[in-house]
Amino acid sequence: MRVATTLSVVVLGAAGIGHAVVSGLDTGIARVDPFKDMKNRPTAGDGMNVLLVGTDGRDRISEAERRKYQLGGAPCHCTDTIMIVHISEDRNRASIVSLPRDSYAEAPTHTDQNSGEKHHTHPVKLNAAYAEGGPNLTVRTVEHMTKVKIDHYLEVDFTSFMKTVDVLGGVEICTADRLKDSYTGLDLKAGKHQLNGGEALQYVRSRHIDGAADLGRMQRQQRFMAAVIAKATSSGVLLNPVKFRDVTQTVLGSVRADKTFGSDEMLDLGRAMRNFTPASSEFTSVPIGKMGFAVPNIGSTIKWDPKKSKKLFDALREDKPLVPYPVRKPKALAVAVAPQQIRVQVENGTKTSGLGKKVDKALRWTGFRTTGAPVPADKPGAQRTVVAYDPRWDRSAKSLATALPGCQLKAVKGQGSLLKVIAGADYKGVTRVQAEDPYQGEFGVTTGDQVVCG
């Protein structure tokens, strides 16, 4: 995610900026050689593929900031975040694919950079490739898994992430539900927030908000990346040489990149992507086949779906959009849980004939999984519509309640996953809602314009 921010700012920032401003900025980049002695690499496709790696690096953050943003503990010197960013050949589209750090992987034969021992191909979690063999083994492992040839490598740590957000003047994030994580200190109420660098770091690091863990964190990282692109393209950074210089100097001071990524590459990309907007970006995560895939001596891993993931990476290699055509949905209120994931039993709490069928049909039209067989309530005469739910499904209940303005929420322990709507005399209709992350297509893609505020 930190590296993704770098790409958003550096690549977009070069648009409209003269070569004199960009030249020389790349001298501050620490260089690595992730492609050294690599053989039998995948065949190059159209477009450009950048492997973005976010590392820990908390040892470079001041003690005061570490306490404020709960960055305690020793740095792990591992990859927190791994993404493939594909820039289309015509430079009109960016496709960002998140690779879970706990993905089951097979590291090719290599010499361990810590022990000096030679290891033959063996199973690892994906982020362990960096710990054992640095950027080189990380690129080799990703190419082996995806069959996508990596053209450039970028690596950013916590420090540059925080400074980049601050020099941009903060980034705006919206959430339909409260986000609270005691591990990172994140505590955002539902609504719109302007996050500074430290708060943004808490947002993209949090993975104890709900049961989605790392997968939920990846979605928030993608949402944040879209917000960064929106800020960079609307704040004047692209057209103001002084702002652009300040941003790039801040970012590049702690970036590591391959030897071929320099001023000319930044300028060429920037010029080509002059009209880039959040709508030009599409985000997804590699399709998952099995969560909690146990591997001896490694633990629980995430196993990719072999058929779906191959199809996804084939699309990248062939420079195809992950969403073949734009899908425009009617305007709707954002909710934390998609209606398609919520099962509902409708009960008619009034003496009005046919009200139960009317409510069931309206909810089903909005996307909720109703039973299609409404029943009379035990006690007719209800004046107010009620959503009865098991407390374990409170997020689903709040999403359903949003579609029924003015309804009352009633917790019923042990009710289970099936929510109940007891239609009352105050029923006025159903409001259209959609998931906060409105995924599209077979790869579950979200475009940047769908997830930024507004």
From TrEMBL:
Every Cell envelope-related transcriptional attenuator domain range: 79-233
Highest taxon of the lineage: Bacteria
Database matches in InterPro entries: LytR/CpsA/Psr_C, LytR/CpsA/Psr_CW_biosynth, LytR_CpsA_psr
Pfam families referenced in this protein's UniProt entry, alphabetically: LytR_C, LytR_cpsA_psr
Domain LytR/CpsA/Psr regulator C-terminal: 341-427
Family label: Belongs to the LytR/CpsA/Psr (LCP) family.
NCBIfam families, per database record: lytR_cpsA_psr (TIGR00350)
Name the UniProt record assigns to this protein: LytR family transcriptional regulator
Species name: Streptomyces boluensis
Lineage: Bacteria, Bacillati, Actinomycetota, Actinomycetes, Kitasatosporales
